[in-house]
Amino acid sequence: MTRVAAFGIACVMLVAIITVHWANGFFMNWYDSQKGEGFEYHLLVMGIAITLMIVGAGAWSVDGALAG
After folding, report:
1. Closest CA to 49 of 22, 17, 14
2. CB 3.0–4.6 Å: which of 7, 21, 40, 42 could bond 13 by disulfide?
3. Rounded CA gap, 5 and 51, in Å?
4. What is the pTM of this model?
5. Tens digits of per-residue pLDDT, 42-57?
6. Domain layout of the chain by residue ranges
7. CA 55 vs CA 22, 26, 28, 35: distances in Å
8. d(CA 22, CA 39)
């Protein structure tokens, strides 16, 4: 179940990068020096989601506790 949710989050972040944040560049707008936000954070979330899809949530996860 966790892998499906992680796949959904990765897809949402990929679409957000392509449709909104790509034109603003890589870096986030820390000092209000550009018009919009970059895709730095979205790429981080995609990396975490892909790791969850590959490895899984582990024995201490809520999914593991509910499954048995």
Report:
1. 14
2. 42
3. 12
4. 0.81
5. 999 999 999 999 998 8
6. 2-57
7. 28, 27, 28, 37
8. 7
